[in-house]
């Protein structure tokens, strides 16, 4: 069954045929590129990767088989051994594996940052055919829109006509970048404008995928500098931003992090094999898991550091735009250059809470940043 509210088309990403949903229009709950409503329960508008939505539906279908027959300590919703309540909402008692509950809590925390954004992905700019026109287009299209605006009067019929004073001269039609856009342009320009409007949703920036793609390119730069030889027939090692970005849009965070960690560990192995310093970049992830309704555990995990080096981790809390509590620790990277640190934090209902994390290796100076929000 297709994704609700999407018109599905197909495209090739990284050699795989994947579904490319068209943009939905659901007001302030509209998800950004690469995300859909989870719909684990009615009116669940948390924005998640399509694979997470499919997993939620599958878990719902298996809910009864995962409950203890006849109930138990938690009443009729008691889960069988090995399962816990998903708790995508306080009353969500669907039984799932523990990792799914952790992921649901993380998705809840990240949902606001996954909603639609006016920021364009690299290579695109706002069209600005009119004030507030934030449709993302190539720079040449914006220049053309400005030129059309400058010549608008020349392309109208002198004295007006059947459509009033904005009637276009012969050979021209209204551009209709929006319903009341009466700038007169050639018919081909109006057709191009309609296509730009349709493509706008997928040209907005997904911050997670932007970070993923840039990190992947940096890691491949280290691969070449160290003569590791990765990527001859492996598109995980590529300098093409769009390839990495578009792949990222169609997978969940676990797969994204897995690919970043794979490259980091491969570079570490190359460094040990060749005796050259690892020129790769460090990566950092921040994840929130629920402890109580307001208390959370902020999990900070990083990779790409040097084995055994101390890593300075700093987390700054920002509440409604004002700096709040901060946290600092100096864990030691393990044999694979990874670090893991947990902090107890609070999320205040009705207030925007952001966590900005940074990490820097004491020996290599490798640094990384990441963010999370309640």
Walk me through this protein's architecture.
This protein is an alpha+beta fold and 374 residues long. The protein has four domains: 24-114, no CATH class; 125-202, no CATH class; 218-278, no CATH class; 282-374, Immunoglobulin-like (Sandwich). It is 27% helix and 23% strand. The protein contains seven helices and 17 strands. A four-stranded antiparallel sheet has the order 14-13-16-17, with no helix packed on it. Strands 11-12-15 form a three-stranded antiparallel sheet. A hairpin with a 2-residue loop joins strand 1 and strand 2. Helix 5 (207-225) packs across helix 6 (241-249) and helix 5 runs parallel beside helix 7 (253-274). The longest helix has 22 residues, at 253-274. The protein starts with 7 loop residues before the first strand and ends with a strand. The model is unreliable at 1-27 (pLDDT under 50).
List the helices and strands and how they pair.
Elements: E1 8-13, E2 16-21, E3 36-37, E4 47-48, H1 50-61, E5 84-85, E6 95-96, H2 98-110, E7 125-126, E8 136-137, H3 139-150, E9 173-174, E10 184-185, H4 187-199, H5 207-225, H6 241-249, H7 253-274, E11 283-290, E12 295-303, E13 311-319, E14 322-329, E15 339-346, E16 353-361, E17 367-373
Antiparallel strand pairs: 1-2, 3-4, 5-6, 7-8, 9-10, 11-12, 12-15, 13-14, 13-16, 16-17
Helix pairs in contact: 5-6, 5-7
């Amino acid at each position: 069954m297709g994704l609700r509210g999407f018109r599905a088309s197909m495209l090739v990403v990284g050699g795989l045929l994947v579904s490319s949903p068209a943009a939905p229009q659901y007001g302030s709950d509209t998800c950004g590129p690469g995300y859909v409503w989870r719909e684990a329960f009615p009116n669940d508008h948390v924005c998640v990767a399509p694979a997470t939505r499919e997993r939620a539906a599958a878990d719902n279908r298996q809910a009864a088989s995962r409950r203890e027959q006849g109930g138990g300590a938690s009443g009729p919703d008691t889960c069988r051994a090995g399962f816990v309540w998903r708790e995508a909402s306080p009353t969500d008692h669907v039984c799932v594996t523990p990792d799914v509950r952790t992921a649901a809590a993380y998705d809840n925390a990240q949902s606001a940052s996954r909603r639609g954004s006016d920021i364009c992905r690299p290579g695109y700019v706002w069209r600005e055919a009119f004030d507030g026109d934030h449709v993302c287009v190539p720079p040449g299209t914006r220049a053309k829109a400005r030129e059309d605006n400058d010549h608008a009067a020349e392309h109208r019929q002198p004295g007006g006509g059947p459509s009033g004073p904005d009637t276009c001269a012969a050979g021209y039609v209204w551009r209709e970048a929006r319903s009341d856009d009466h700038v007169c342009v050639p018919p081909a320009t109006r057709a191009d404008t309609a296509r730009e409007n349709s493509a706008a949703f997928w040209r907005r920036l997904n911050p997670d995928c932007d970070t993923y793609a840039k990190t992947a390119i940096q890691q491949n730069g280290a691969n070449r500098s160290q003569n590791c030889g990765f990527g001859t027939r492996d598109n995980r090692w590529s300098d093409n931003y769009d390839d990495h970005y578009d792949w990222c849009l169609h997978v969940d965070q676990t797969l994204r992090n897995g690919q970043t960690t794979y490259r980091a560990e491969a570079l570490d192995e190359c460094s040990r094999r060749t005796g050259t310093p690892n020129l790769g970049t460090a990566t950092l992830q921040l994840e929130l898991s629920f402890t109580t309704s307001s208390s959370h555990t902020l999990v900070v995990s990083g990779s790409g550091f040097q084995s055994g080096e101390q890593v300075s981790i700093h987390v700054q809390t920002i509440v409604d735009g004002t700096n709040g509590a901060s946290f600092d620790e100096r864990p030691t990277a393990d044999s694979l250059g990874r670090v893991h640190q947990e902090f107890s934090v609070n999320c205040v209902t009705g207030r925007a809470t952001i966590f900005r994390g940074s990490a820097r290796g004491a020996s290599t100076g490798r640094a990384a940043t990441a963010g999370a929000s309640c």
